[in-house]
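Input record, target 12 of the design panel.
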C-alpha cells in the first residue's frame, strides 16, 4: 500500500478543488437548504438542484481506508476526494456521501470506534480487501465495564481521540489557505454515535441482559458515556466552531449542532428507551442547541418518543422499508420535524401532505 501523501500532491488537489467550486452555486444551495429547514419550502418534497458538473483537472489518488488511518494527509485527501466527485457530478441518491446536489463536507473519518477506544476497547482492523472502517471489540466482562466508573471520563486524546483532533487541526490549517474551501466545505463533527450505541459497543450484547439484571449499573455507565460524549464534542467545537446557521452532516443539513445515532434502540422496547436512554439523548440535545437523530432499521415503535425530545429538529432514517411510514410521518413532519436524506423509495405511493419537510434525492 502506498506511503504518505506528498506535499505537492496535496497542494495540487487542494488547488484543483478550490478552482472548481462555484461560490454562487454553493450559496444558492445553502439558501435553499435554510428555506427548507425553516419550513418555508413551497413544495411537498425538497430535492435541491444539482450543480453544474466541474470535472477535475488532475487524477486524484484512490486511497485505501487503511492508508487514511495511518496518515493524516491521506485522511484529509480521501475526504476531499468525495467533494471532488460531487463537483464532478457523481450522484447516488442511495448514498448520503455522494450527491451532485448535496452539501460539500468532510469529517475526521475514524469511524464508530472513536469513543469506545477512549473507553478502553480494542480496535479491530477489517481485512484490507473490505476497504472499510475498523470496528471495536467489547471490553469482554462486566467487571471491566464496572471499572470504567472508577476511571471516570477518559483522556480525550486517548484511543482514537488524539488522531481525530490532529486531523481536524490539519483540515483547518489547510482551509485557511483556500478561502472557498473554508467557506463552502463544512468540517462536521466526528462519529460520536449516541449513548445507546456506545453502550452496546463497549459492553457487548450482554448489555441487553444487564437492563434486567443490573439496571443501576447500566444507568451509571450510560451517565459516564453521556459525560464523555459531551466533553468530547465541547472540545471539538472549541477547535472547530459552528459558523453556519445550520449544521452539515453526511452532506445533509439540520438545525442544531449534534447528530445522535440510535441504531441500537431498534432492539429495545419503547419503555426501555424512555427509561434508560431518552433522558441522556435529551441532555445532549440541550447541551448542543438541539440537533438530529439517525437510526437504521425499524424505529416506528418509538418514534413518538423521539418526537417529544426538546430540540430535535430532524430525523434521518436509512431503511424506510422497515418502518410504517405513515407512523413516521405522523411523528415527524406533522410535528414540524424534518425528514432528511430519506431514500426515494420511502415516498413510494405516498399521497398524504408532507408539509414541505421531507428531503430526498
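The sequence produced for target 12 reads:
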Amino acid at each position: 500500500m502506498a506511503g504518505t501523501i506528498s506535499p505537492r500532491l496535496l497542494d495540487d488537489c487542494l488547488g484543483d478543488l478550490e478552482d472548481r467550486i462555484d461560490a454562487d452555486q454553493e450559496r444558492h444551495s445553502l439558501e435553499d437548504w435554510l428555506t427548507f429547514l425553516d419550513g418555508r419550502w413551497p413544495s411537498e418534497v425538497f430535492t435541491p438542484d444539482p450543480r453544474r458538473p466541474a470535472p477535475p483537472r488532475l487524477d486524484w489518488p484512490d486511497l485505501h481506508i487503511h492508508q487514511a488511518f495511518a496518515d493524516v494527509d491521506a485522511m484529509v485527501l480521501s475526504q476531499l476526494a468525495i467533494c471532488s466527485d460531487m463537483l464532478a457530478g457523481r450522484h447516488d441518491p442511495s448514498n448520503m456521501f455522494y450527491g451532485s446536489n448535496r452539501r460539500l463536507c468532510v469529517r475526521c473519518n475514524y469511524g464508530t470506534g472513536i469513543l469506545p477506544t477512549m473507553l478502553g476497547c480494542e480496535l479491530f482492523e477489517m481485512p484490507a480487501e473490505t476497504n472499510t472502517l475498523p470496528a471495536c471489540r467489547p471490553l469482554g466482562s462486566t467487571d471491566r465495564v464496572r471499572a470504567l466508573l472508577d476511571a471516570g471520563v477518559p483522556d480525550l486524546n486517548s484511543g482514537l481521540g488524539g488522531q481525530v483532533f490532529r486531523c481536524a487541526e490539519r483540515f483547518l490549517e489547510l482551509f485557511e489557505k483556500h478561502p472557498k474551501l473554508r467557506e463552502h466545505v463544512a468540517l462536521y463533527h466526528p462519529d460520536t454515535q449516541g449513548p445507546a450505541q456506545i453502550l452496546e459497543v463497549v459492553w457487548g450484547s450482554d448489555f441487553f441482559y444487564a437492563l434486567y439484571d443490573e439496571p443501576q449499573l447500566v444507568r451509571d455507565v450510560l451517565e459516564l458515556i453521556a459525560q464523555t460524549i459531551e466533553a468530547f464534542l465541547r472540545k471539538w467545537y472549541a477547535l472547530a466552531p459552528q459558523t453556519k446557521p445550520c449544521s452539515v452532516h453526511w452532506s445533509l443539513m439540520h438545525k442544531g449542532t449534534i447528530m445522535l445515532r440510535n441504531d441500537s434502540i431498534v432492539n429495545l422496547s419503547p419503555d426501555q428507551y424512555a427509561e434508560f436512554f431518552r433522558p441522556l439523548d435529551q441532555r445532549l440535545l440541550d447541551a448542543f442547541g438541539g440537533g438530529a437523530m439517525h437510526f437504521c432499521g425499524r424505529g416506528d415503535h418509538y418514534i413518538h418518543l423521539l418526537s417529544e425530545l426538546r430540540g430535535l429538529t430532524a430525523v434521518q432514517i436509512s431503511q424506510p422499508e422497515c418502518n410504517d411510514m405513515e407512523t413516521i410521518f405522523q411523528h415527524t413532519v406533522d410535528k414540524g420535524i424534518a425528514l432528511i436524506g430519506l431514500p426515494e423509495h420511502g415516498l413510494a405511493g405516498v399521497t398524504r401532505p408532507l408539509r414541505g419537510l421531507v428531503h430526498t434525492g
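The mean pLDDT is 95.
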